[in-house]
Write a structure and sequence with these properties.
The complex is a heterodimer of chains A (305) and B (494). With 305 residues, chain A is mainly alpha-helical. Chain A is built from nine helices and two strands; from the N terminus they run H-H-H-H-H-H-H-E-E-H-H. Chain A has a domain of 67 residues. The N and C termini of chain A lie far apart (71 Å). Chain B is mainly α and 494 residues long. Chain B is built from 15 helices and no strands. Classes of the chains: A mainly alpha (305), B mainly alpha (494).
Chain lengths: 305, 494
């Protein structure tokens, strides 16, 4: 009678699998599984920080609706890919950027653009990018205009005129729950926050109002987009008294505008989702990663070293 | 004991089985009838639902306004619903059905208490239903191929333990001394899956690892699910069906053993190449790329073994549906692995990462290889357990060609579309919109392929229902695709 179970076969089956399990999940866990936020010498300027409650809740909405299947959240190094040239970030992403993320949403596809730094992008007037205001705003506009790269050379030519720190560490928009990035170059002018609307009153790209309009109807702001609309995150209601402050701004878009006396307002879920998007920001310098942003490269005292 | 000792001569060598063996086989087949048919029926229902979702996924990608107001039909929900339905509903169900039958046949033991296995299958269906419902309702976990919410995952796991214990118990009660190579693969698959699933669930949900490691764990899982679970079942089935149908033993047992162990060792280490240049230590990605290159060894060994077994018998693919589907699957396995090696190489990976090429690769493995092998095994097994032969050779031919053209077109569109998308993504002078625009024509082409596959699956499901209703042919010879002219063109009879 033969043995009951073929021991060498079973050992082999378990052994090969244990080898892979240990090698690809267990050992990496020792290496990068217990990272702490970095701080400067005084123990302040902590990065990264856990997200606010609303942004965390927004992450759930992001996951539930499968945004991750089209949008990545990682910037690859400049030698490997054109992510940094596309202004999706000023440095490559590192494991430390994600220590509070659960689930981590690195993404597998770029049917839509990368969102690793979408909350850091400053308002940009896509329609009037060529007529960008002079000075500091022009320099900031390049960092925020992946959608209109053809205008970059013109804007780049204008950028040397202001002192370099302007682009080194842009302050986050006021609507972002993330802490304002504080770096040695804190002298950045606070100018860009004031301008959130284009001249015709429609929201500038990457402002919260723009995100709402984009989520409600992507093709109203990007005609060629194949992103699905997320109208189920918005509700139509009768205006009682004044128009709600966060009602979707349909200026310059007649098709979606509700009839007189009605307005489209974001649900709590939509507001959380936008809070999450506005909190996505990997612009803070990390000790282990070289920052390669063209704007900050010009700054003499760059880096938090 | 050397590995070769445990290999037993191919079951196909009994060209004229004795009366006793025939009765024995009939008894074994009868004991597996209810559970295997139950697994197959569920699998085919999931396949049809999954195909429906696939159509939605494909069409919505280039026409985003279809059903855009319905939350549970938004693209980001139906895509994971489709993938999980196909993997856990169709592929795993079909794979387990085939594996149970193969185990019973190869262990030469009747299946005891088949109703408990049916209960396991019922729970599995419940788990898939809960999981897909959960995803559509917005409960997805967000990890690739692990999107089922935890309440579904638990049901799935309990069901699995029930099913697996039966397969392993059969192995324990096997008769006949040696173990055939198919049993190696099946035993491996049945033991790897629970570990894999439990490890991934624990490391992601119970005691979650930090940050980017979640991505590493989830890719490690997805990759091993493809290779060590579905891949192992698929390869094991091909190792049974090809020799069985043509009536010759496997060309080399040594090659089979080498193929098995190198497969277990190297294929299990791949996966991280999908994260190339991401925020990970470079060694992890390099290790996976190296492992992917090393999988050429098992792929070449298995391919060579099948080829040498088939040599001189390729003409039989004209007649036997099982052989035709299985050999197509086995060849696709080689193609799938070669594409896998190619898109793992760092220079290529940088190009095709974040494009549709990855999806093309996955479909090559899940459909062109695994699903086609499963269709082949169903064409072999179903007549033996219902006691009827397939009714219409024409339907089988239509099924085959619609599937072949469908998956061929899909793979071509996704891979070529990936290259187009990748080259415009990597050119920063082009605006981002252009990369999406460049892939849209390919996505429309992919939609055509989904229509073809839908036709193919409907035909197969209809034919299967005829068999279930006992409307198959009562004949002593199997249904051949073409009239047999030569006497040697016969399938093994039992």
């Amino acid at each position: 009678m033969k043995e009951l179970l073929p021991i060498p076969l079973l050992l082999g089956i378990f052994g090969t699998f244990a080898f892979s399990w240990a090698g690809l999940t267990f050992i990496p866990n020792y290496q990068i599984g217990h990272l702490d936020p970095q701080t400067d010498e005084e123990g302040t300027d902590e990065y990264p920080m856990a997200k606010s409650g609303m942004a965390e809740r927004g992450r759930k909405i992001y996951v539930a609706n499968g945004c991750v299947y089209c949008h990545s959240q990682q910037v690859r190094a400049d030698y490997a890919a054109s992510d940094i040239e596309r202004k999706w970030g000023n440095r490559r992403s590192a494991p430390r950027d994600y220590i509070f993320d659960r689930p981590v949403l690195l993404g597998v596809s770029r049917m839509g653009p990368d969102l690793a730094n979408v909350g850091k992008r400053l308002p940009v007037d896509e329609g009037a990018a060529a007529a960008a205001p002079p000075g500091a705003n022009a320099a900031l506009a390049i960092a925020a205009s992946p959608a209109a790269p053809t205008t970059s050379p013109a804007a780049a030519a204008a950028s040397p005129s202001p002192p370099a720190p302007a682009g080194a560490s842009p302050t986050t928009p006021a609507t972002s729950p993330a802490p304002a990035a504080a770096s040695p170059a804190t002298a950045a002018p606070p100018a860009p926050e004031e301008k959130l609307l284009a001249d015709d009153g429609s929201p500038l790209a990457y402002t919260a109002a723009w995100h709402h309009r984009h989520l409600y109807n992507p093709r109203s702001v990007a005609p060629d987009s194949n992103m699905p609309a997320f109208r189920f995150l918005y509700e139509k209601r009768r205006i009682s008294g004044e128009t709600a402050g966060d009602a979707v701004n349909f200026v310059g878009d007649d098709r979606d505008k509700p009839e007189m006396g009605w307005e489209i307002v974001p649900t709590y879920e939509a507001r959380c989702l936008v809070a999450y998007l506005m909190s996505l920001d990997q612009s803070h310098e990390l000790k282990e990663v070289k920052s390669t942003a063209s704007a900050s490269a010009a700054a003499p005292g760059k880096g938090a070293k | 004991m050397t590995p070769a000792d445990t290999l037993h001569r191919s079951p196909s060598t009994d060209v004229t089985p004795s009366e006793v063996e025939q009765v024995e086989r009939a008894l074994i087949d009868a004991s597996t009838r209810v559970p295997v048919l139950m697994f197959y029926t569920s699998a085919i229902i999931w396949l049809l639902l999954g195909t429906l979702l696939a159509g939605l996924v494909s069409f919505k990608l280039h026409s985003p306004n279809i059903f855009s107001g319905v939350s549970c039909l938004t693209w980001g929900r139906i895509r994971p619903a489709h993938m999980n339905l196909m993997i856990y509903g169709w592929a795993s169900m079909a794979g387990m059905g085939t594996a149970i039958w193969l185990m019973a046949r190869l262990c030469r033991t009747t299946l005891r208490h088949p109703l408990l296995l049916v209960a396991g299958g019922g729970f599995w269906n419940l788990g898939v239903l809960l999981g897909v419902g959960g995803i559509l309702a917005g409960d997805s976990t967000g990890y690739e191929w692990l999107e089922f919410p935890s309440y579904a995952a638990i049901v799935l796991f309990v069901a699995y333990v029930l099913i697996m214990s039966w397969a392993v118990l059969m192995f324990r009660f096997r008769r006949g001394g040696a173990i055939y190579i198919t049993q190696w693969y099946l035993l491996g698959a049945f033991l790897w899956f629970p570990w894999l699933y439990a490890a991934a669930q624990i490391m992601l949900f119970v005691v979650p690892v930090q940050g980017v490691l979640q991505s590493a764990v989830s890719w490690w899982f997805a990759n091993n699910l493809l290779f060590l679970w579905l891949g192992a079942i698929g390869l094991g089935t091909a190792y049974y069906m090809i020799p069985k149908v043509i009536g010759r033993p496997v060309f080399s047992y040594h090659l089979a053993a080498i193929g098995f162990w190198t497969y277990a060792l190297f294929a299990s280490w791949t996966g991280m190449q999908r994260l190339v240049d991401g925020p990970f230590p470079a060694w992890m990605i390099t290790a996976s790329i190296a492992a992917a290159i090393l999988t050429i060894i098992p792929v070449a060994t298995v391919g060579l073994n099948h080829h040498m077994t088939m040599r001189g018998y390729f003409s039989l693919m004209r007649y036997s549906p099982t052989l035709r589907f299985t050999v197509f699957g086995a060849i696709s396995y080689t193609v799938f692995s070669m594409v896998g090696v190619l898109i793992s190489l760092r220079s290529v990976a940088r190009y095709v990462q974040f494009t549709t090429a990855g999806e093309g690769y996955t479909h090559l493995g899940l459909y062109a290889f695994f699903t086609m092998v499963m269709f082949g095994s169903m064409y072999y097994i179903v007549p033996r357990i219902v006691g009827r032969e397939w009714r219409y050779a024409t339907l089988i031919k239509l099924h085959f060609w619609a599937s072949v053209y469908g998956i061929g077109l899909m793979t071509l569109m996704l891979l070529a579309g990936g290259l187009a998308q990748g080259s415009s993504l990597n050119d920063p002078t082009l605006s981002f919109d252009e990369s999406t625009q460049s892939v849209l024509p390919y996505l429309r082409g992919r939609s055509v392929s989904v229509v073809l596959l839908t036709v193919s699956h409907c035909i197969f499901a209809f034919h299967f229902v005829l068999m279930l209703l006992g409307l198959g042919r009562t004949a002593s010879v199997p249904t051949f695709l073409n009239p047999v002219e030569e006497p040697e063109a016969r399938e093994a009879q039992v």
